[in-house]
Amino acid sequence: MLADDTYNTASTNVQLSCIPEDTTGLERIMLVAQGDLQRLLSTFFARPIVVQCIYANASPRLRPASPENLITQSRQVHLLCANRVVCIATSMVTITSPECERLFLDEKFPIGQTFRQLRRNPRFSLLSVETLTVRGKRELRRTYTLETEGFVAEILEVFPDRDMFIQGEAWLLEESDREGTCASVTENKPDWLKINMESVVH
Q1: What is the spatial distance between Cα 147 and Cα 159, in angstroms, rounded to a whole number?
Q2: Distance between CA 74 and CA 59 in Å, rounded?
Q3: 110: closest CA among 157, 81, 77, 84?
Q4: Which H or E run includes 53?
Q5: Could you read off the pLDDT of 29-86 as tens digits, one per residue?
Q6: Is the separation of the CB atoms in 54 and 110 below 8 Å?
Q7: Helix (H) or strand (E) holding 171
């Protein structure tokens, strides 16, 4: 586990291991977000964060979700701020409770808001962190899981341009290169996100 979060009555300590040496303090905060990334990004940019669903493909819902009747969904969303893509999240969600099925698939709460509706803090495991240069932009990527009873999400997040965390408002006002960013993510899907594009959400 790359993120070790410990506490006692007098102190809290979060240690990150095996992350790029040039990771900034603000980036480290984003890397340990546990279902509240949208809140952190909105706080940083002082603007709303909008969730744009790119695709959401669910397994058949023949019976209510249960440990014996798993329902899965593969999905990708873009987090937008001032019409710029600030994060691309590609996820595989496994649902085993009717309450989580209702919130996530029927009421269509995003992953982070589903945990908030459940009033639960998810178990967080940071699986990998890497930086890449794609079409001249410095990307920051993380893969992690969020878990609670009845709901598990494994998520790949891509921050398409690390300059956003340095320039802030000035970066938002630059011309967006959305097509190039999305193409780079599609070409680098992890093995656990093999998508059946013919399935749909019911």
Answers
A1: 22
A2: 9
A3: 77
A4: strand 50-58
A5: 999 999 899 999 999 999 999 999 999 999 999 999 999 999 999 999 999 999 999 9
A6: no
A7: helix 169-172
Instruction: Give the H or E element holding residue 128.
Output: strand 123-134
Angle at CA 156, nearest 5°, toward 167 and 166? 10
Cα-Cα-Cα-Cα torsion 173, 177, 178, 181, nearest 10 degrees, comes to: -120
pTM over 0.90: no
Give me the pLDDT at residue 18, please.
Answer: 80
Residues 6+ apart with CB under 8 A from 151: 93, 94, 95, 96, 97, 100, 104, 114, 115, 118
Of 121, 100, 120, residue with least CA distance to 110:
100
Q: How far is CA 140 from CA 119, 154, 155, 170, in A?
A: 29, 17, 14, 19
